[in-house]
Amino acid sequence: MTRHARSLRLVLLATVVLPLFNGCAVYRELQPAVRFDPMSAGEYIAMQRGDILTTGRLSAATVQTLRVAGLDACCSQPSLGCIDAAAQQTTLSDEQRLSALSELWLQAAMQTPSDAAHAEARMQAWMESARHAYAYLFFTRRDPSERAFEDRQTQARDWYNHAVQQASTLLFDVLDEQGRIHAAQDVPRNDQPIAYAGWNLHLDLSGIRLPEGTRLPHELLPARQLAFTGLRNTWRRDGFGAELVASVEPAVRLLDKAGRPAPSLDGDGAAARGWSEMPSPGVTALFRFQGDDLDGVLGTRTVLVSAHDPYLQDSIALQGQRVPLAANFTAGYGLWLARSGFNRQSLRTLFGRGEGIERPHLYLLQPWDPNRRIVLLLHGLASSPEAWVDVANELQADHDVREHFQIWLAYYPTNMPIVLNHAWLRESVSNTLAHLDPQGTAAASQNMVLVGHSMGGVIARLMVSSADQKLWNWAVEQSGLDSERIERLRPRVDAALRFEPMDNVGRAVFIAAPHRGTPVAADRLARLASRMVRMPLTVLESLSEMAQGVPREQALERLSLLPNSIDNLREDDAFMRAAADLPISARVSYHSIIARRDPAVSLAASDDGLVPYRSAHLPGALSERVIDADHSVQGTAQSVLELLRILREDMAMHGKSFPPPEQRSLSIVEVVP
Fold this sequence. Notes:
Helices cover 40% and strands 15% of the residues. Strand 9 and strand 10 (321-324) form a beta hairpin. It starts with a helix and ends with a strand.
């Protein structure tokens, strides 16, 4: 018999005989029991790490758990019956059951309608998801450190964080709608729980700091749901807890004409002072389910809801474990800037239009901290705190800087003469510190670091300089008043013209600062812009009162001809020439960051498009860094890195004495492409 005939005979035999046996056996004989398909590394990682939050489908681990428990058919569609069946399983390990239940409850919450009629059902599901993730993390046989490298632990942490985030904002919105939040005379205490959706929630808000004068936020926003354009990076810290933003203002509040925030619903007093704290601080929320063991946690309906300040606390002790707290250091800052309206207001201010500001204002990017020293950022001409959008964000992202410093932003009317803004900013800083630290003994009141860009650098230099007769002589020449009238004015203007370096400043950084003016301020376009700059009538009226014996109309006319901020930046401006050589305090360490627009030009002949090197260079600086960039160099990565280096140097050398300026040699001259 040929080989072909034998094969045909076997096939015919199989056709007749094998149907007498189990059909499955036939299939197994004809098909491999196990097959494989090639999978890329990306597909494998996506399969292992994907879950209900990232893909909208249950994770591979939860699906596997349901199969092991024989619940794959029961749980083919999301249902409370599936959740009940999984909870009753005794063959699963605690870790399998708890993690699967956390994700199943999360799925249920995400699929519950978001209308008010289903709010309690949604709250129940969020709470159960958080409860089971919490139990998985802290009440199973293994502690979190033993699962540190497992994807499942990361998933459970994310489910807990998301569930707490959603439950926190839902609870806040429900109570706000019911009028139960702002009707309270005091923040709810631990012994006065809030009952909602079958849960007793004890609030502990002692760990957060809201702006002075506020009791509770007006809205609570999930930080992870805020995406920003215009910010180079979003900085956060991985860890345990929900990242939230507690906004204390119900709507956008621009400054009024006097440079003060319009009154808020909280009556925070900012309208009567020259400073305010950022109205949207970051908060980390935790839900701690009461119970000493697994059964206690799964059976409790009592939860401690605590809020934590990410600037003050980076970890917390939970069930004998030291757990890092999640944090978001960008979301609150970004929300504040997005709502500020600074971009419109700064230009209106320069040209004296409506809704501009007339006096400086200081913004504290976190509630006052007496133990962290101050970095004060001063913007330039036609600008606002938005000039520091990436700088402030990057500084707050650095752990060491965040531990030692707090960021303040100055906002001042750039249409005013530099001499006025300098005097007003000095007054604002002094008054703010006097309010926050009346005794002047806090660490924050000492060794401030000034950072000024462009015209802000000129003002910063005046704040660390001495002026005896030079500015007074300049003012006498400019005023055209007789000596008798000038003497009568002396008590009212002496502080602006004769001053000493600010005692509480220890270091200064000048960025693209035109210490000796700029030729650009004298060109045709700048002269045209200068003629369009107007000082507010209220300021002129105030100044005219000092010209005693001079008719009001004559005084106003003369004052309207005073050099404005653009005039002051000319190289031949009398004020600029007088101020350029004022001596900087020997107690102050100072640095220069200078931009060079064209690297092909020699350093001595270079400029940044506005400020020539010869004007930005300062003898006696501890360091000078030249960066290939235009005038807006402050926001570049190289400039931020240099600021971080200087601040770390300040941390390391704080308290040490420095040689006087005339004995200092330039330690760094570096050109960065």
